[in-house]
Give the backbone structure.
Amino acid sequence: MIQNAEQAQEAVRATRYPPNGIRGVGSALARASRWNRVPNYLQACRQPDVRAGADRNPRGVKNLDAILEVEGVDGVFIGPADLSADMGFAGNPQHPEVQRTIDDAIARIRAAGKAPGILMAQQELAQHYLASGALFVAVGVDTTLLVRAADSLLSSFKQDKPAEQPSQGVY
């Protein structure tokens, strides 16, 4: 979780190759180079964009404007589960105070000319964030989707037993 401008600067450095950063140059092992299949990758690669997860706690929200000023931070991904827990509303990212904080963060990120993003599997809230200006919204989690499909398949073979009720997680 990025909580201040200094951490954002370190995150940017971690995504850039020397001399502009500290990212390892082992391109034969990297997906970015398609495992060394991109001709002249090291000579031709451009610096990647950075998505800084600043809004996962109140400290990141407090320092959001300074984080947005860091060169190389192109967007901020909001983590509503972590943010709501840190604000004292664990498991309740729908709480009005959390919603106000998220909406304010999205507006500030857009005003800075950056891309706000968020993870929200609840369809109504995902639509709300899109309407509020979020430019990228993750609407599902691969492991959750896999478990739901497995539970559905299992229930078709165990019709005499009720399906297990999942915990009340955020996603």
Observations:
- The chain has eight helices and four strands.
